[in-house]
Amino acid sequence: KLHSDLDKGVGTVKYTLSGDGAGTVFTIDETTGDIHAIRSLDREEKPFYTLRAQAVDVDTKKPLEPESEFIIKVQDINDNEPKFLDGPYVASVPEMSPVGAYVLQVKATDADDPTYGNSARVVYSILQGQPYFSIDPKTGVIRTALPNMDREVKEQYQVLIQAKDMGGQLGGLAGTTTVNITLTDVNDNPPRFPKSIFHLKVPETSHVGSAIGRIRAVDPDFGKNAEIEYNIVPGDGGNLFDITTDEYTQEGVIKLKKPLDFETKKAYTFKVEASNLHLDHRFHSVGPFKDTATVKINVLDMDEPPVFSKPMYTMEVYEDTPVGTIIGAVTAQDLDAGSSSVRYFMDWKNDVDSYFTIDATEGTIATNELLDRESTAQYNFSIIASKVSNPLLTSKVNVIINVLDVNEFPPEISVPYETSVCENAKPGQVIQIITAADKDLSPAGQRFSFKLSSEASNKPNFTVHDYRNNTAGIETRRNGYSRRQQELYFLPIVIEDSSYPVQSSTNTLTIRVCRCDSDGTIQSCNVEAIFLPVGLSTGALIAILLCIVILLVIVVLYVALRRQKKKDTLMTSKEDIRDNVIHYDDEGGGEEDTQAFDIGALRNPKVIEDNKIRRDIKPDTLRFTRHRPPAEDNTDIRDFINQRLQENDVDPSAPPYDSLATYAYEGNGSVAESLSSIDSLTTEADQDYDYLSDWGPRFKILADMFGEESYNPDKVT
Prior knowledge:
Elements: E1 13-19, E2 26-28, E3 35-37, E4 48-57, E5 68-73, E6 89-94, E7 102-105, E8 123-128, E9 133-135, E10 141-144, E11 156-164, E12 174-184, E13 197-203, E14 211-216, E15 228-233, E16 241-245, E17 251-256, E18 267-276, E19 290-300, E20 307-308, E21 312-318, E22 326-329, E23 332-333, E24 342-346, E25 356-358, E26 364-367, E27 378-387, E28 394-404, E29 412-413, E30 418-422, E31 430-437, E32 449-452, E33 462-466, E34 471-476, E35 488-496, E36 504-516, E37 522-524, H1 538-571, H2 577-581, H3 600-603, H4 605-610, H5 635-650, H6 660-663, H7 700-707
Parallel strand pairs: 6-12, 13-19, 21-28, 30-36
Antiparallel strand pairs: 1-4, 2-3, 4-5, 7-10, 8-11, 9-10, 11-12, 14-17, 15-18, 16-17, 18-19, 20-23, 22-26, 24-27, 25-26, 27-28, 29-31, 31-34, 32-35, 33-34, 35-36, 36-37
């Protein structure tokens, strides 16, 4: 209620209200100032309201007093029950836990004012789940209430928890939640076989490694606590079988380790032990966590294939054995109760099998072709045996036939076929160790002997020392060898084997003489090295060769200058006409003057006929050679030329101007005919030699001789 001191109760004052909830939650009587709540209030929604009130004049609308502010506080009542905001709950606890083992803590929330009364004071209790669990009334902690709760008996528990306010007093509000509690497994149970004896029936034809049966031990535990390991207890028949654990079903899988035979043994008995892999030490006092059962296996008789007496057969035969010779036999038997006959045949896979045949009834193996050990030393094939009563039942065995050697090849020296010896070798020095090889193969091993051939045993150069271990040494017999005298030695060596009949061969060993240092290290075995001085380096040898080449060049130049000087002296002589005769091999400009005269005309006579003009000078008038009838042979001139030619041939100081190469280009036998006036076809009287003066200075002497003087045969001797 609001009231102003200026209000006289005559209706001149008006009250107004503003602020939180004015007009919606609260209203005011304008005349009396009474404030009323027009709807229910919820403290949990809004605990207080702030309002402003004012008194104004009814007529003037002016405030009579300043505006005043006041707070309306909502007083709490217990109108909210406790709530479990996190429920429902899920928890777990190991089985066999002791009393008071912690499980879970729950918490309820009350929206009422905790500072006013007991509206928000919560107390916890269990409505469902006793006597297995208990809860602390104040903290809400749930604990186990019974000892040794067994998961295998009951695994899941649902507990109903109540939270009540007002401290749990009568009239208080309450809320509930559920807690699902699971007992987790521990290994508190050993495996147990459901029965003490297991019976299995196994065919005798079962393969080694195959599963022949399963047994199972039961463990009520869960997960890794239920994993079981099976073992066969050593005893009767246990060595023929093995057992493993199927990781999915935890069954014991019995497998066969060795083949079964009904005719040998019809039944086996052994014990199997089942135990846990993961043990819990808290439960050791309960007893051993394992169990034992007996397994009896009955072997079933089956129709089996024949069985060979050996797993593999090995035979031997000499090469070149006649076709049809029996070299061995295989044997197979039917071990079943009603024994059946056996038939044999070869397992044809390749052409190798055609070398042998087998008797279908007796199983004897014979040769079908001639054998050669050097071609094939061993044969490997298979023999198949089948029952006559049931041909589909077969068995197979491998047969190895070794071909024995017959001594038919002589031994030969092994590489190397060439060796070396130092020039400074001493007598008795071993220069090479040799061995031998033989294509034959003796079962006892070959023994080879070495010796020199009869024609080489008397030579004092080398000898062979047989070490009697299939090796021999080549020893020197001289004190030093000379490459200048003999570079290569050929040593014939006779090698014999020890087989029958004895085979031998003569092998030639080439021995090369080499230059070595004092330690016996080979320095050179080349032929060219014989003529090289010892101790000179490559640079020194090159320098010596260069000096020799320079000296040869100087000598050649000197000889050429000497020849040119003598030639000029003879050509300039005018006194002795006879001496000029020897220069007729130098017609024209001479052999060296290839520019003054076309020497090609000497090789082609057509040039002489077609072109008679000089090429070295330009003549004043064209001159032509006058052809005259051939003259008679002048024996005096011919004798003179032969005499002078013989003198110059035997004279070592005379220059060789009369060369055979020059004469090959002219003369009676050549295509160009003779270029000399001597022994010409025309006579001197009819010959005109005036054209010689037009040929240049080199023919001046001839022009003077034949142009100015008349020919007088008496002056020629």
